[in-house]
Fold each of these.
Amino acid sequence: MTAPDFYHAVTATALSQFIQRTHGLIAGIQMVHILCLACVFALGLALALRLAGKGFDSESLDSLSRRFVPAIWVCVALLLLSGALLITAEPVRSLPKPVFYIKMALIVLAVILTSAIAGRAHRAQRSGAKPPVSKAVAVVYMLIWCSIIVAGRMIAYY
Amino acid sequence: MLLEFSQWLGATSLGTAVAEDWFPKVECVHVIALATVVGTIFLVDTRLIGMTSTQLTFRHISSRLLPWTWAGFILAAITGFMLFASNSVAYYENGAFRLKLLLMILAALNMLYFELITFRNVATWDTAAKPPFAARLAGVLSLALWCGVIMTGRWIGFSL
């Protein structure tokens, strides 16, 4: 099966047809996608600020990540689900484009870094060590989330 | 008068530069700014409703996040104005764009009422896991209005 055949087969499925033909559904799914993106971005920002020692200083990084990282996972799961529905509706809009795969790779990177930050904070808390503070990691972390947004917008253009 | 302003703005070098070269770049910055605004507002509003971070005071959350909301809003307003300039007459005549502006004005009025009236006695409910009805109502209205802003913002792309 060639790539165009695959896109055609996906577009012909009942789910794809339902999303395409229901007035306002694509816009509604996009709204959920953007809302989840905004939430994950703000949660990531709070985590990065604490990691850089620039905010939320009354709470340890471990405590903050215990509250915020599960919320990040929920948002990422909803992002993947809403993204999958949008791809099902219009596979040609994203799947043939290299920037889509760059976005996916960046999401994997963001998930790994989120886990690493939370894991390191938890280990430091358990062993009584000094909590990790790294402005560089915080900046890189937020740059990854910004790049995910940029790559997402670029799918519409390239 | 607004139509004349839109016609003038679209013909400026800013309008043509954004339309011809900068639109995707400006749009990316606009979405990052919007994510900062809406995301931080959601974290503050869900605390106001009593859904999240209930072990922390409301002021603890709001004082740390709202400066980022304002910074994001200023950036979103600047980039939004630049995007508007790229096709100003079409945006001016677009129903979704007008509705988006109306929802933003309502969100601002809701915030103003909250700041001037409800927030005045914050000391009495700052630590409460479930703030008073007026505060929770402000949070729910804010969440609904910003969802509407995102929805109408997306709808502009479908209706231009």
Amino acid sequence: MARYAIRLTELTKDYPTGFWRPRPVRALDQVTLDVESGEVLGYLGPNGAGKTTTLKLLMQLIYPTSGRAEILGRPAGDIEAKRRLGYLPELPYFYDNLTAEELLVYFGGLFGLAPAVARTRASTLLDRVGIGAERRRRLRRYSKGMLQRVGIAQALVNDPEVVFLDEPMSGLDPVGRRDMRELIQSLRGEGRTVFFSSHILSDAEALCTRVAILVKGRLVSTGRLADLAFEVQGWELVVSGGERGELAGRGLDAVTTTVSDGRHIIELPFDRPPDQVLPELSRLRFQVVSLIPRHESLEDYFMRLVASRQEPAA
Amino acid sequence: MSVIARIAVQVFKESVRDKVLYNLVLFAVLLIAASYLIGQLTAGQDVKIIKDLGLAATQIFGLVIAVFIGIGLVSKEVERRSIYGLLAKPVRRHELILGKYAGLVLTLAVNVSVMAVALYAVLGYMSWVETEEFRRTWDASATDPAMLTAILLIFVQLMLLTAIALFFSTFSSPILSAVLTFGLFVVGHFNADLRNFERVVDSPVAASLARALYYALPNLAPFDVKAQVVHGHAVSLGYVAATSAYAAAYICALLLAAILIFSRRDFK
């Protein structure tokens, strides 16, 4: 098995805009990224960051201006690579007059599956994504959420090694989102590589082994969630002993919660570091139980990166 | 089954479930049936009228089906983004174009057959109810098998028009594709006039341009043998073969151009 399931090397895409004098607008700017086999990578960024452009380049729905995209060691668009991947487009749309079952059998056939095998696989997958008796209804009658489920099922029809999901949570209700999260977790458990784009950071936080953050077409950060340079936004100081009333005079009462057995949790803000407070607390006979830095959430991190990218050059 | 055949079967399945198609075929069949009533109004000319109207209905409704489904095959697929899921499968872009084309030709073959059966049914009824004496006044028998030649050439012409619609739909919007295809249908029937343009203009540039257009634009007039067939004049096998070979060459060129454009296209 190739070590890297996906490799992007200085991948760049310009779109021409304007009719008489077309000028290129850079949608993706020299993105270099490796995704190891078995990884779940969250490809994050605000709308217009270039996430869908990257996925379209990987599916060869569009051609790169420069750079390379490879899947399982083969160039994007290669038929052998396509046999081993699954793709859920953003807000998927299929053929109105086919049923979900027929669609899956048709797509299975394109992978060379015999009709009987394709039918069995279609049935199993539709069960897996929660499409019941309505699988025999034409797709024109499906809701957005149901189409998203069918979209996931069709992405898995060939039992792919690498699964690309473009905004898999969009259009789903809370139950649908939970189901989708469980499904991605199960794909991870089965050892598949999952590359999913999202602007919903809480989903990425729960699912990804690694994230890559894209802002205005440039990859600004990649790494395991634990290794990303999250800013410390404050500290959580747990103390015991002492009288809570003593804290009020030091301006700490408002940020203190008393839990039990005389223990107090003090939420220290960023502008009041522990070394300013600890000598005082010690003098008041408080004992430190624990001191934990409070990091910004992935969401805050993301917003900070977006803000710094959007600041005009001085 | 090859990828092209699978795509063709899916296009056929999708098309025959389209209500618009049902309505068109039903309307065509009703029109063919109604030609019997119109025939009754024209003393002695009834069979000719029915044949003429029936063949014209087959051609016009075939054209409408070819254009409206033909332009939808690719441009609607792009517009509605269903092409994203399809091209991510192990499908080469030329296979998609050829599969779509084959699927539509299959759909047209079934529709033209239905219309032909309806026409023969009306003519068969006509032949059955009329007296032997009256039948002898007809140029050709009501159920003259030579009509199949006219239907075959209508079908070949529809195959060519489908290729035109498919070609336009690889790079333009559905509405523009429809307008351009209908435009070429009209121009194609008057193409022969371009050949003789130099006789009516003095400018050699205009004459050369007209001649170039004559060779570039499809010449559809030879596919129309309704008049000969209706009046019982024979259409030679050689003529049918030569006209079909012309269509085949034109279709190949159009499909090749469609594939070249489609293969380089970005689906934004």
